[in-house]
Amino acid sequence: RLAIVDPDSGVELPSGRIGEVWVSSDSVCPGYWNQPRESEEVFRATLKHGQNGSAFLRTGDLGFLESGYLFVTGRIKDLIVIHGRNVYPHDVEAVVQRACDWLGLNSCAAFGVADQGEERLTLVIEASRPLASRLRQACHGESSQCEEVSAQMRRLVPQLQAPVAEEFAMPIHR
To answer: Considering the entire predicted model, what is its pTM?
Structure first.
């Protein structure tokens, strides 16, 4: 048996809703070797509104069922959760890449960072070789040149923030 379950509440979700993929079968192993606590949590999960007391394996995968087919959308640990909203890093990265034509392919990474007890969206942008070279030259030359390049870099930040705020209604942490 396959179930799509809200990973926090243990409630089975209806068709089309994304949740954690849980599997119950005689072919699922009984647990981790010599790790009873972890085995109980991962290999013997039960639905909140029990289904004959069946034990499920929590796969850690996210997905949904539609017309009898399973669609896997990602992994729980890949999610960035901000104010209760689930965001996939690759979705944020794709929005930034499309909005900023000056970025090289696959040159940004989105992830969550804990800050004062809350998760915040953070982006790391890889500088192209020409830009990195220009930054090095400017910052080893006159301090006014370095300040000018730094100011130019700060002016680029809104180009990154605006499309993310528009698409996901959340700010990028600075």
So the answer is: 0.56
